[in-house]
Each structure stands twice: as structure tokens, then as C-alpha cells.
Sequence to fold (890 residues):
Amino acid sequence: MERSGYKSEIPIFEFHGGIHPEEHKLESNQTPIQEMTIPKQLVINLKGQAGNRSIPVVNVGDKVLKGQVIAESDGIFSTFQHAPTSGIVVAIEKRPIAHPSGLDDLCVVIETDGKDQWIELFPKKNILELERAEMLAHICESGIVGLGGASFPTHIKLKRESGIDTLIINAAECEPYITCDDRLLQERATDVLKGAQIISHLYDDIKIIVGVEDNKPNAIDALVDARKQLEMDTVKIAVVPTKYPSGGEKQLIQLLTGKEVPHGGLPADLGLVMHNVATCVAIYEAFEFGKPLISRVVTLTGEACKKPGNYEVPFGTPVEHLMSFCNATNPGVLVMGGPMMGFELPNHKVGIVKATNCIIMAAPKELKHDHIALPCIRCGACMDACPASLLPQQLYWHAKADEFEKAEEYDLFDCIECGACAYVCPSDIPLVQYYRYAKSTIRNQKVEKTKADKARLRHEARQERLERVKREKAEKHRKAAEARRKAAEAAGEDDAKKAAVAAALARVKAKKAQQDDSETDNKANDQKDTDA
Amino acid sequence: MSLISSPFAKKPTSVTELMLWVVFATLPGLFALVYFFGFGVIINLILACTTALGTEALILKVRQRPVLPILFDGSAFVTAWLLALALPPLLPWWMTVVGVAFATVFAKHVYGGLGNNLFNPAMVGYVLLLISFPLEMTSWLPPAELAQNPVGFIDALSYIFTGTSMGGEPITAARLGVDGFTMATPLDHVKTELAQGYRLAEIETHAVISGLSGSGWQWVNIGFLAGGLFLMFRKVIGWQIPAGVLLGMVTMSFVLFAGNSDHFLSPSFHLFAGATMLGAFFIATDPVTASTTPKGRWIFGLGIGVITVIIRTFGGYPDAIAFAVLLMNMTVPMLDYYTKPKVYGHKVKRQQGDTDAH
Fold:
């Protein structure tokens, strides 16, 4: 593929490993972004972003307008969702969702009316007058999440203010096949930079760097023009060599700064915050036009796709609608995301979500290979390809043997699941699957262990309580006996009869008291046990 | 539902392909061997490979594994190929068969087959033969230019299968040099002569020692060096192990040579003698049994180089690569454990027991 001759404006560092898979970008990056037709039904998944499920605020039968809020953030770690077009809510129920598990989840189904009628929008162009919190709230209420693929709620990523000195715009788009960011830059580089400018208002003083792979020459030219036009001279354009996974957050940071995000830390610990180009455009539109995030650019490609290209697709559009639009009959594999980190869609009816950057409609043999996995010969090709400098061969060995502690010792959780190892493996071992398996098992074990620990603590507390009750009873008996003895002594010998009666009474009283006590105790204990 | 999982893209390099590259890269060395030591080498190769494939198929059947896909991974073939290249040219046929079968069954499948063995199978086979049949295993032919009775293909076949030539001559006849003495390999020759009290300078005048490291042998080594560099260039093997072996060998032999050049061979002699290049580029680099980390590979190679010189100099056997490789194979689990590279985002290399919570 053509490489840009544009020289990077900042020095570029290296990251370990990486691979050069076939790029497959030309299939989809040759035509301008087009509007996707609106399907009859939109299936909007309430867990369509990283974090928690959004809370629906519409009911079945409600008429909704384009841009109207249909689900709100749970206030912690989720986002707002809006109706992508006007229509009627016909169902709020569990439907298959775009997730590798193939599980069902709660979806809002909208029967579209074809009028595409907007709700009234409230732009916020007066950014300089806005408080930081107001800006973040507006971003949250506009439903903006990271559009690079992970769909992390953007307002959370922007929350931290102190110590942030650099905003990196991630335009590396290193996955093969995907070109939505490339096209967006080619056509709307000014909007991207305007979005970046809005983000920069959230911070006192922040540098802006755009990190872009050199296989997007037109995008780079567009960026240079846009910067000139907007007079944003301080924006630096960092051109990195094409290598997968340059677009990984940690890898791009290493490429542009030479620094590594500390283990267990965040880019913010290095003073960095990173956003994808499409996220910048979404932020720009949210402030400039008051437009919530209701659609995104999705790359439709693959050999089975007869109209490959990039399309502005409303969220919730069923994949089968996209397939019929592209005359993709019978694709061999249907992948959401790129070929390296995407997943095979189990169902054609699922609606696209905010994380959907690409749908590959692959021909039967395009992405499937029928080699059987041979034994690992420890050749180390995976180690040489690993961008995290892990030892994938050892991780595989331990994951396969269920030696999870060993796998953790080899830093299993630093694996970013980029798939570079499995790509180069001459034995065709599905390495990433082993790591996912090991990770999920370890997580489950930790949950189980916490549960077991809690149960043990509860049991120990109960034992202690029973012991205490026993001790208290013994003490009571002792006191009662004492009282009897004292009474007898006080009564003297002449009144022995009276004393005998008193003692008998005391005994009865003590017994009764004891019975009552144990009953209440038992009741209390039962109650406590049920509570626990 | 049979969903496949990412990555969907795949680089089309297979284990079989890697194995074939290895075989291909031995060709220059092989040509040199055939040129100097006759067709026995080829007969050994055919014998060894047939045995290996047969044994592998049989044992896969016994272990109830899919025979064909594993047979064609090429690993058994490569083991036999490399072992055969290390065998004396006229070794009796059944010894070759025993060595290869033992390597396949005991050094490989007893551990669980390809990828699971701790010891280099070819070298296990070689060492079994060396300690069982020391005479036959050290009986090399004189190089072509020094041979009194050059051995043709038919004669070689006859020697290997019957022990005598077609004309009924005993094998000792084939081993006579032009001067009428029985030939030993240069390393063997030096060792025996030194034991007799000769100084190195005197020994070096003998015909068998001529050239860098002995007549014929230097060319064999140059052949394997060329093939090995090609493998390195193709990235079939890493550079750390061969570099380590050669550096270890040069360092160790230099220390001895600098101390007493009358008694100890020079580094350059060691480099081109015996199985040095075959060992450094083809044997020690077996990925299954070598260390797998970059730093570990360095240490692994250095160890082999140093041990080889020690055994060649002070040990009972003339060549020592096989022993050195097996000894270093034993250290691999430990090497791998203590040479983990620094992982992205970690300040320093993780030490043992340092398991911070995730």
C-alpha cells in the first residue's frame, strides 16, 4: 500500500514486537462516507458500551423523536442512549446482542416511521463560558463513548484534570480492513481538530498530538490542511510506521513518548489522555449542534460485501440490514471489528453498537483456515511478536496445564489480546483463546475465593457467638446458685423450712429464666443466620 | 455453534515449512561431507530418515494419535537428518537404525512427542551410539585427498550392510590413509598425539591436520556455517544461540591457548573442527529443547561452547558437542525461569515470588 512521505513532527520511538498483516484497506477506503438507509426496526442494546447497562426511560408504545433520550446513565459507569431516528418503541426485551458470547440482553426496539424527525437540539457553542463539570455532563448526556472500539464512557476518561499535559488523538487505525477513521480524517479533518480543541478546553494547558500510521497519506494531508485552516499551529502530527498494533493505546503512547504506561496504571499517570478521531467528531457535534451520538461511521468490507465502503450507520441497525444493503449473501464468516481483535457475530439480527467500527463480510475461505493446531515447538516467534514483551510460549504452556498461578507469574494479565502471537505461530495454536480461558478462570476463582472467605468468616462468627452464649449461661447458673446459697444462709437454721421453700422458688425462677433466655437466643440466632 | 475466535488472520508459515528450511540449509555442509567422505553419508541419511518415519508412524499408532498430520510436521525427519549428518560414513546399518529409533521413541515420544521433550533427540541418539559403540562411532574415513582406497557408492553400501566391501575387503582397508596409517579425525588425532607427549606444533605438521582445522573438515564446517547463516537470515533460527556457542567456544579455548599454546588448540582450530558449525547452527538451535527467552538463549549457547571445549580438551571423547548440548538441555527450565524479559509497564523485571495483585 501507498505510504505517506510526510515526516513526523515529533520523534517516534519503537515498541517491542508487532506484525505486518495484509492491510486490506483499499477495498473500503476509496469511496466517500455514505448515509446508510434506515431499517424498519432498530435494536438498541442497553449495554451497548463498556460499563453498566443504561436505564430505559421510555415505555413500549411511546413515540420517540430522533435524538430523544431513550436510556439514561446509571450515574456510575454507563452512558445515555438516544433514539437514532423517529418511530415507536415496540418492545423492551431481551434480544441477541453483538457480543462474542452470543448471549441475549435487554434491548429497546424501535419501529422506525421513515420521517427521521429530530427533537429540538440545544447547541453549546459558548464553550469558554462553560464550567468543566457542565462540559463533562454535556458529553455524558450526549451519550459519547470512545469510538475506537472499546467504547469506554468519554466523560469518565476526561474526569481527571490535574497533571494532564498532553492530548493524543489516536488515528493509527492499525487493524487490517478498517478504514472508518481514515475516511473520517480525509473528509472531516477540521471537525476532528475542532473536537480536539473542545477537549483541550477541559484542561489548563495541554498539547495536542495526532498519532497516525503512514499508510493513510490522504488523511495526513487532510490533517495538515485542516490545521492550517484552523490556525491550530501547536497541534503536532506524528506519523508512525505501519505496524500492528500501533493503534493500541499503550503501544501508541510508547511510540509517541517512549514511555510505558505503568503496570496497573493509566495513561493519565504519564500526563496523557487519548481519544479516537471519531470521538473528537462526536464531541464537536455535541457542542456545535447539540447533536447526541446516534450513529457512527462503520466500515463494511470483506470479499462477500458487494458495496464495500464506509457508512454513517444509525445505532441499532441490524447487521442483516447492512448485509442485504451490500448484497452479501452467505458470507463465510461475519466479523465485528477487525480480523485481529474482532469477534465472529453469532447472529445476523443483532444491532450495531457504539463499539462497532467494522463489519467484515468475509467470503467462505477469506478468514477461516483449516489447519489443525500442532504442538508448540517453543520457537519463540510469538515472543518476538508480542508488543507487551511477554513470553506467550510460557503463558500457553501454563494455561494449557491449568497452572494459573504460574501463568499469572508470567504476567498473563498484561496481555492485551492483540493476537500478534497467534498470527505468527507456525503451529497454528489459538494462543489468545488459551489466555482468555486462563484469565476468565482466574477471575472466577477469585470470585469463588472471596465467597468462600466470606462464608468462613460467617461460620467463625457464628461459632464464637454460640460459645459466648454458652459462657453467659454458665455464668447465670453460677449466680443463681450463689443467690440460693446466700438466701439459705440469711434465713438461718430456725427458718430452715422457709429457706427450703425460697431455694426451691429460686431454682424454678432460674430455670424459667434460662429457658426464656435460650428461646430468645435461639430466635435471635436463627434470625442472624438467615440474615447472613 | 462453532464460532471461531480472533485473530482471524494468519501468517502462512507452518512448522513443516520451518523444518524443510532446516533440511535445505544443511545442503552445503552435506555436499562437503559427501565430497570428502563419500556416499556413505547419503546412505546413512536414507537409512535414518526411513527409520525415523517408520518408528514415528508406529508409535503414533500405538499412542492413538493422528498419524499423518503429525508425521508430516517434519520433526522426526529433521531429527533423523541431523543425527545422520553426525554419524561416521560407514557405520553399520543397524547402529544407525538403533540410534534413530531410540531417539524417536525414548528421547521424544516417551516425553509426550514433539514439543514436550527435554533433551535434544538427535543428540540422545548420538550419545547412545557413542557410549555403546565407541570404536565404530569414532572410526571416520580419511578425507578424499588423503584416502588410499576411496570408497565408491556400491562399496559404501556393501560396507554398511555387510561390514566388507564388494571384494570382501574389511572395513579397516577403507580407513587407511595414503601413508598407510589408519585415519582418525583431526580432533581425535590431536588428542591421542598429545597424550603421547608430542607438542602441538609437531602434530600440526601431520597431513590430517592441514588447513584451518584439518583436511576436509574445515570445508564441512564452512558449509554448515553458510547454511546456518542462511537460516538466521531467513529468521528460522535466532542469532543468540549460534553466537553464544561460538563465543563460548572462542573464549574458553582462548583462555587455554593463551595459557599454553603448546598443549591447547587454538580458537580458530576449534571453530572449524569436528561438529562445531553443525552443532552451533543446527543442533543447539532445536527450539524445543533450547532456552526460549532471548537472554536464556545467550547463556544456553555460551554454556554449550564452553563445555564443548572442556570436554574436547580434557574429556575421554574427541568431540563433545552432543554432551554439551545435553548438559545444557538440563539447565533450560531454570534458565527460562530466571531470564524473563521485562514486561511492558513493569519498572523492573519481575522477581520470583513477586506476585502483586492484579
User: Anything to note?
Assistant: Chain B touches chain A at residues 1, 3-11, 13-15, 17-18, 66, 69-70, 73, 75, 113-116, 238, 287-288, 290, 292-294, 336, 340-347, 350, 355-356, 358 (CB under 8 Å). The radius of gyration of chain B is 22 Å. Confidence is low (pLDDT under 50) at residues 350-358 of chain B.
